[in-house]
Amino acid sequence: MGVTAAVADVSFEVNEGEIFVVMGLSGSGKSTLIRMLNGLLEPTAGSIEIDGVDITAMGGKELRRLRQEKISMVFQHFALFPHRTVLENAAYGLEVRNVPKQERLAKAKKFLDHVGLAGWEDRYPDQLSGGMQQRVGIARALAAETDILLMDEAFSALDPLIRREMQDLLLDLQGELGKTIVFITHDLNEAMRLGDRVAMLRHGRVMQIGTAEEILTDPANDYVAQFVADVDRTRVLTARSVMEKPIALVDANGGPRAAVRVLREQQASFAFVVTRDRRLAGVVFAEPAAKAVREGRNTLAGIVEDGLHTVDPDTPVAELFLPCAESPLPVPVTDQGGKLLGVIPRVTLLTALGHLSTNTGDFPVVRDEPASEESGPVSEEMSSASKESGSVSEELIADA
Fold this sequence. Notes:
Number of helices: 17
Region (Disordered): 360-400
Strand content: 5-15%
Strand order of the largest sheet: 4-5-6-1-7-8
Number of domains: 2
Family: Belongs to the ABC transporter superfamily.
Number of strands: 13
Order of helices and strands: EHEEHEHHHHEHEHEEHHHHEHEEHHEEHH
Radius of gyration: 28 Å
Oligomer: single chain
Mean pLDDT: 84
Protein name: Glycine betaine/L-proline ABC transporter ATP-binding protein
Pfam family, one: CBS
CATH class of the largest domain: Alpha Beta
Organism: Actinoallomurus spadix
CATH topology of the largest domain: Rossmann fold
C-alpha cells in the first residue's frame, strides 16, 4: 500500500527509422520508461519487445549483448571518461565488444567526422565545450553501429543556442543514417521539433501519442490542450499543414482556349500550369491567354511565366511569411521533383494559426479543348482567400 506506479498502462510501438519522442514533466515517468527499454529496470508487468523478442525474459548475459549490439545510449551529462581522448571515448562501445583496435579507432574517427569533430581526436573531454562533449557522446553511440539509439534528456544540459545546434545535428544525422531513436525530453518545443511522433506522459500514463501537428491541432484532453497552449505554432505547422488546392490549373501541353475556359469557370485572373505528371511549369494570366486566343494560337508557348518562388512542403510556417508577402500570387508548394502539391494564399497563411486547413487532396487539371459557350460553375472548393489576385473581367472573356 502507498506505492506509486512510475509507469502504468503504457503501450506504444516505435517504427523503424523514426524519432519517437517521450515528453513529460519531472516525475512523469520518462526516465523509468527509458531504463526499461534497455533492460536496466524490469517492469512488474507487461513486455518489451525488440524485433519481436521480449527482452524482459532475457538473462544478464543476453541483456549485455543486447546493449552492446542492438541499443546505444546518449546521456544527459555526456558520461565521457576524463582520462581517455576524444577518439578513445568515441571508440569505447566497440572496445567492450572486443573489436580490433585499428578497426574501432577508424570507425570512431569516421563518426567524429560526422558530428563535426574532425581534428579533435587527441583532445580530452575537459578541453571541450558542453556541446562538443555531447557530440562525442553521439559519435560513440553511432560508432557502435546499433540499430536503436536511446537519448535521455541528451540536450537539456546545454545552453539554448548549442541545444538548437545539436537538434539540427541530430536531424541531419537521422536523414543520413535512418536510426530508430527514442528521445526523452521535458521540453515541448524540442519534442515538437524532433519527433516524428510524440508520446505525452503524465503521472506515468500516456495522455496522447501523435505527430506534433496532431497534438497541437487536436489535443486529446484538457491537460494536453493546456500543455501546448503556448507552443510557437509557426515552428510546428508546415506548408503542408496550411496549403490548399489551387483553384485553376491547366495542362502545359494544352492551348490558350483551355486556359481561358478554366479562368472563366473559376473567375480567376491566373492559372498555374502543370505538366502531365503535375510538375509545375509556371503561371498563365488571363489577358495574355485571351490575346493568344484572338490571334488563333494553339499553344501556351510564350505566355507561361516561370521562375515562381516555390516552397517545400516541410517548410515551417515561420519561414513562409516573407515569400508570401513578396509574391502577388499564392505561393506554390512543390516536392523535390517539382510536383505541385498545393498553394498558400496570403490570407490562408494569416489565418492558419487559428484554423488549420486540411484541403490537401488531388485536384483536376483542365486539358485543351474548344471553349464552351457556357461558363461553368465556380468550384465549391474555391476559397475567397485563393481569389485574392482578382477575377477575370467579363469584357476580357467576351473578347476571347
